[in-house]
Predict the 3D structure of the following.
Amino acid sequence: MRAVIQRVLGASVSVDGQVISSIGKGLLVLVGIDRYDEPPDRALILKKILSAKLFDDQDGGSWKRSVKDIDGEVLCVSQFTLFANFKGAKPDFHESMSTIPGSAYYHAFLDEIRSAYIPERIKDGRFGAMMQVSLTNDASYIFISTSSSLSILDESTSS
């Protein structure tokens, strides 16, 4: 799995000109699913999303609070292009999980992240839809987490 995590003051997703989801202060997360992803990948990514210290504290100390600490919201948007490769000038999406298992995997991820936080604070787009995503960045902080590299980090720090 791969997550592009952006700190936002607000974000929304529209389909066919209609806003289907929106959040205030929190995180906009573009979620990509690799064709080899397994349930442990979901657990690693959702832990990173909810526990990463991306917000300042009350005293202005940088990188002190998580989205949970600030009672923020999370807008998850499925993004199969995060695993695209280029063959010449054309993108190739064979590393992304295919539609039917990808949809099931993504919805399981949403269920798990809602269970790990306050369900009403987790919003999402529409899997497989042509979505328009609008956001107001809270500074230009963008972070990328990939579950395979997180697995390596977790193994190396646990011994």
User: Anything to note?
Assistant: The chain has one domain: 2-145. The beta strands are 2-15, 18-23, 26-32, 73-78, 85-87, 90-92, 122-124, 131-146.
